[in-house]
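Q: Hi! First time doing this. I have a protein sequence and I read that you can turn it into a structure. Is that right? Here it is:
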Amino acid sequence: MTSAEPTICVMCGKGHVTTQQEGIAFRQWSDKGYIHCRVMIPIDVCDHCGARYSGDPEIEKTLDDAFQREYNKR
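A: Yes, that's right. Below is the predicted 3D structure, encoded as structure tokens:
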């Protein structure tokens, strides 16, 4: 499949999926108390059913990096 071909939604099987960057905020407990983080992640959105999910296998690393960056500021 080429990048010009639309991606079909894995939830409904009918809609086309587009990827957009979305900001999320989260907090995680640490030995320094709660660490508050903000990060931009790619989210896939179906134009038919509205399903929102992440198809990026690097999300966990992105969240870990954001936590470590904020943790080191304290």
